[in-house]
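Notebook B, p. 112. Complex prediction, attempt 2.
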Amino acid sequence: MVKFWNRSTTPARPWTERTFWVLDLELSSLDARTGHVLSAGWVCIEHGQVRLAEAGHCLFRQSAMMGDDVSASAHLHHITDQQREQGVDLGDWLTERLARHADDLWVCHHAPLDIAFLKEQCRRFAIDWPEPKVLDTLRFEKKRLPREIPGSYRDLNLNACRRRYGLPTYRAHHAFSDALATAELCLAQVRSRLGPDPTDVDLIKAYR
Amino acid sequence: MTTADDLRDVVSFLADTLPFSALSEDDRLDVARCLTIDYIPRHQNRALDLGKQLFLIRTGAFELKTADGELVDRLGEHDLFGINTLMTGNPQGLKVYPIEDALVFKLPQADFERLCERYSPMRQFFHQVSSQRDRLGRLRVRDDRSQRLEQQLMQRVAEFASQTPVSCAFDATIREAASVMREHRVSSLLLLEGSELRGIVTDRDLRNRVVAEGLDVNQAVIGVATQEPVAIGPDALLFDAQKLMSQFQVHHLPVLDDGRPVGMITATDLIRAQQVSPLYLINDILRQTDLDALAELRHKVPALIHNWVQADIHPYEMGRVLAAIGDAFVQRCLRLAQDELGEAPFAFAWLAFGSQARMDQTFASDQDNALILGREPTHEEAEYFGRLADWVCRALDRCGYKLCPGDIMASNPRWRRTVAGWIELFDHWIDSPTPEALLNGSIFFDVRVVEGDERLLTPIQDRLVQRTPKAEIFLAMMTQTAVRNRPPLGFFRQFVVKSGGEHEDALDLKHRGVALVNDLARIHALAAGSRAVSTQERLEAAMAAGVLDRDLGHSLQEAWSLIAGLRIEEQSLAVRRGETPTSYLDPDGLNPLTRAHLKDAFGTLKRAQQAALQQFARGLHG
């Protein structure tokens, strides 16, 4: 409760002064309790711009906790067995990344799914969940789509959303490409829908 | 850390984009890692704050404009900007406006510098783009009408200086120097020792230092000259020349290239530069005493046309003035030719056909000319006129009026005839018209005397006026030949031109535009028995004679003005860009209003062609 109190009294800052951690996970299924995280891609938005120097991509090592069911979807996600064996330990990655980005605003396309997986994995690795503010580019788009367009999945997938802002098509099902694509979409949304110089509080409201 | 595969979407774009495409894969990855990405929506319709970074357009479009808002360039995917700011601090004040939502990659200055350090070809490339935009920007600045006076002074000295400075040896006497000046009708004279400039003497020096002082004119002229005069380089701006002149209180500046005199620029040249008037040019043309100097004057025509285009002068007016300039060149060439070959043994008339006769010349008009001989020549006289015509046609070619590819020139003996010879020829065309003959021969019916005895043409015109209105088969054939070329209406169905082959999908404003109106005007004028030659006047005459419907006639006049105006505007721009002017128009560059007007104009041409077929070729058309 104290934590919440402190946060809400922090004065609003121009959004360009905040760091955004834009994240995409490739998953073996849609269920956080049974599925696995195959890979993660991320970029940062600083000073209102995507910085490719602050970006990364990694494949996670297949652990005892990962089932054999992975191979089918891994194929779809451009991941080979060899890559998975040489991959990063998910626990280490979570520990390092979550600490580093705890105070950032997180951005995902269809955030509930990614966040559910991250929370579940944190529980298993006994890592404190940092309670981040998360902006969901899909939710933002869904709220603003004209009512006559049915809100089917097709209209809200990453490339469909990007097309509405004239953004180019990137390769699909690659965590880094999707993270970059999400970051650009987020910029496009903020720059073209939120008026001049919004604050971080304005953003959080707009993405709620 | 990201790998080349992670950044594939970015790296592969760089691989398709100059100059990054020239880098190794490792270096491209290095560049990609340095990039930041920004999204710039179109509704932010103000100039971008460029900062110190290189912009690379991933998607979207921008306009590059001068400080005064003149469009310099449109930029799209794969194009770069921000280069001038990075390299020279953008002293021109070029501005960039987003005209479509855009995603841009930015390379920070430090990384840009590092890249240029490592690869000198990179720096060269960026430098080229920068100076190209700079040049474009300057051209556009010159276009600005409101500031034309000042802008004129931003042109190079070499463009306005006399090309062949008049000079004499430095040890000549005052009298010798003065007579050289009189001979060449100049107000200043360079005194040379070998090719080195020793001094300059002017009218004013002769007045103040010689006449007023009662000096002996057999003394050396160097004694009254200004020694080691102030000079200027050919690449300096007129503005610099003006500054020097007022600073040193002189009216003449020798133009020195590498220490060698290559020209002279005078206060009068500066005034001319600021009020480019065709009268000055015509006056200049008629003053030249050698062909080299005369031919040089052709370079002044494009600047004139450019100014008229900027001042929205009606293409009809432009045509008249260009014809007057063309006539002056012919007149001067004939004079120079006779100076060399001797005076003509008897009266003749130098004829112009086609565009010069109609007075709708533009850039790069070919010469179409002929001679009417005052009487049947002897063998020697015939040879004289052959030499005269040869001399003049080749001289005109040097003056920018290209030799006629169809050999319709006075240098061809077929086109040097007596009055009776010409009447015989026209009678033949009227009595037994064939499509082939008319296709090549229609320009003979657009004829005007440029120099010589105008009365020689009168009996020929009398004959035409008397015969053509009644020559039904001739008119029918003329009409059928004329409508072979159709206006390009189909063009507007898909008004998109890809930048592929040259002129591939471009509009031909000459053959499918103005020429169609010219053809229709000619037929109606011949049917009306009018002596008018210019298309506008022919249409007027045809309407007055009741041969042409008034509404259609006025629409044709408007269509002609619009298409001819667009054509000369395009040509003028092409010349400014250093390209060869053509009559092709890229419809992509048209604004929607002009496009709609153009479509209307072509519609008018189609209606007029159909009406003419009905009127003149009834029963024969099929």
